[in-house]
Design brief:
The structure holds two protein chains of two kinds. Chain A is an alpha+beta fold. Chain A folds into two domains: 137 residues, 60s Ribosomal Protein L30, Chain: A (2-Layer Sandwich), CATH 3.30.1330.10; 177 residues, Alpha-Beta Complex (Phosphoribosyl-aminoimidazole Synthetase, Chain A, domain 2), CATH 3.90.650.10. Helix content of chain A is 35%, strand content 25%. In chain A, β2 and β3 form a beta hairpin. In chain A, α4 crosses α5. The model of chain A has no long low-confidence stretch (mean pLDDT 93). Chain B is built from six helices and nine strands. The longest helix of chain B has 17 residues. Chain B is elongated, with a radius of gyration of 19 Å. The chains are: A alpha+beta, B alpha/beta. Chains A and B meet through α4 of A and α1 and α2 of B.
């Protein structure tokens, strides 16, 4: 669902008051955070969607990596997950088995376990997980901790929305799809571990609202403005060509229009680069705010930890009249 | 000919794919794609813009849009390049190339050499992407008339979508009006329009 519609619907809910609810709906963060003791907080998140790739096992892996990502973005450690499965009666049950196996393997890779789940009969398959994790209340990394001067690091290339749109039309090359799939099924665990090592204060994961959508949430929550450099933003191979062919998902247009008043682009950037910064991501990377002077050490550590795609893509500045500026 | 595509109710990326596919037919001068959402409208426009097709976007009643995409062999819309009416930057001019053939010989020199060269030029032309139009005038009209040494190549270009125009005044002058083998008789007004609208004009003299 688009950010505008979602905000509209959520406004109608009664306000939730609980002194132990450290992070709720208010700041559009990645997970709910609930304090259960002085030194322990529970993190909870849920995410599920329709198949993004044909291979059911890979789809299961991608859905699980995507659901786990919210826990990592908050600096948490996943403990257990519950499967959510919608499945048509007409498809062979082996397909469902393969999806669940993909999800289970990914949850095990994350050091967590599957503790149960729920299935619903539905016309189209959908799969995802509700994940529960823990963190020390002082170690929670929200999207509200970015400070002027920080550098913005993105840990995975963008482009999965465009590539998956091309896949639906059979227009993505095998190598393009392979690279996108590898990226989507990669856990954000290693990136999150390095984030914790460096005691970073602000992070979010990049999913449906695209890079600038999630960046805007960070800017709002942190009361700062952000400056991105388009030329520094990494994209999966093939993304630009496919977008130029007109294979841009509806979500990218929705995301762009939602932020139309709050983003200023360099004149030299035409329609396609602007849209790509709003491309909705499936199981995207983390966007992290790194204190100035530490970005090189941080990137080196990330690359060594198996996050080769991480790049500095922008910086945090004092809150100005424009929420997000995009340079060429 | 013009081809209409009803892409109402179709999810991204199918309107783009159908438009692209329809334009691959050289007999199609323009594709008119009807869509019912802004994503499809913008994606078909993006495709046309970046693939070098001229196009126009028109809003219809009831939340519908028609995107008219001109095939590369077709004459462009009035005013040249594509435009759309929803505030995005206009598309570039159609990059189609027009060959203006003013002689039945290629280059200044002995006539027999000029004839050999013009033949090789058309053989080379027939092997590459077809120009949007070939305009024949002065002694160039002999090349489009019966007995021309390049008729097979011209036919191939015509089959692949090149528009072939011959200057009527010139045909009359050389008494070739009844012998025009390919294309159609044109006038200086139309020829001027083709030249104005061309992305590039190559003169064969």
């Amino acid at each position: 669902m688009g950010p505008a519609t979602l905000a509209q619907v959520l406004r109608q809910l009664p306000p939730m008051q609980d002194e132990n609810l450290l992070v709720g709906l208010g700041t559009a963060d990645d997970t709910a955070v609930y304090r259960i003791g002085d030194d322990l907080a529970l993190l909870a998140t849920v995410d599920f969607f329709t198949p993004v790739v044909d291979d059911p096992y890979l789809f299961g892996q991608i859905a699980a990596a995507n659901a786990l990502s919210d826990i990592y973005a908050m600096g948490g450690r996943p403990l257990f997950a519950l499967n959510i499965m919608c499945f048509p009666d007409c498809l062979p049950p082996e397909v469902m088995g393969d999806i669940l196996r993909g999800g289970a393997d990914k949850v095990l890779e994350a050091g967590a376990v599957i503790a149960g789940g729920h299935t619903v009969s539905d016309a189209e398959p959908k799969y995802g997980l509700a994940v529960t994790g823990v963190a020390a209340p002082g170690g929670i990394v929200t999207n509200a901790g970015a400070r002027p001067g920080d550098l913005l690091v993105l840990t995975k290339p963008l482009g999965t929305g465009v590539i998956l749109t091309a896949v639906k039309g059979d227009l993505a090359g095998e190598d393009t799809l392979f690279q996108a799939t590898e990226s989507m099924r990669t856990l954000n665990r290693a990136a999150a571990q390095v984030m914790t090592e460096f005691s970073l204060r602000a992070a979010t994961d990049i999913t449906g609202f695209g890079l600038l959508g999630h960046a805007a949430e960070m800017a709002e929550a942190s009361r700062v403005s952000l400056v991105f450099r388009y030329g520094a933003v990494p994209f999966l191979p093939g993304t630009l060509d496919l977008a130029r062919m007109g294979l841009v998902p509806a979500g990218a247009y929705r995301n762009r229009d939602h932020l139309a008043e709050r983003v200023a682009y360099a004149d030299s950037l035409d329609r396609v680069p602007r849209l790509l910064l709003h491309d909705p991501q499936t199981s995207g990377g983390l966007l992290l705010a790194v204190p100035p002077g530490r970005e090189e050490a941080f990137l080196a550590r990330l690359h060594a930890a198996g996050v080769p795609g991480a790049r500095v893509v922008g910086r945090v500045v004092e809150r100005g009249p424009v929420l997000i500026t995009v340079e060429d | 000919m013009e081809k209409k595509l009803d892409c109402r109710g179709l999810a991204c990326p199918h309107p783009v794919i159908q438009t692209k596919k329809a334009l691959e037919d050289p007999a199609v001068a323009a594709v008119v794609t009807l869509v019912d959402n802004t994503t499809a409208r913008d994606n078909v426009s993006l495709f046309a813009h970046n693939a070098g097709f001229a196009y126009e976007v028109a809003e219809k009643e009831g939340g519908l849009w028609e995107i008219r995409v001109y095939g590369k062999s077709a004459p462009p819309p009035a005013g040249g390049g594509g435009k759309d009416d929803h505030g995005e930057e206009p598309s570039v001019a159609l990059p189609g190339c027009v060959y203006l053939v003013t002689s039945n010989q290629f280059g200044q020199g002995p006539p027999d050499l000029g004839g050999v060269l013009v033949k090789s030029l058309f053989v080379a032309l027939a092997e590459g992407p077809p120009p949007r139009a070939l305009v024949f005038l002065n002694s160039g009209v002999f090349l489009a008339a019966a007995g021309s040494p390049v008729l097979p190549q011209l036919q191939a270009l015509s089959d692949r979508g090149s528009e072939i125009l011959a200057c009527g005044t010139c045909l009359e002058y050389y008494h070739l009006k009844e012998k025009l083998a390919l294309g159609r008789v044109s006038n200086m007004l139309e020829i001027r329009e083709r030249l104005d609208a061309a992305g590039k004009v190559v003169t064969v003299a």
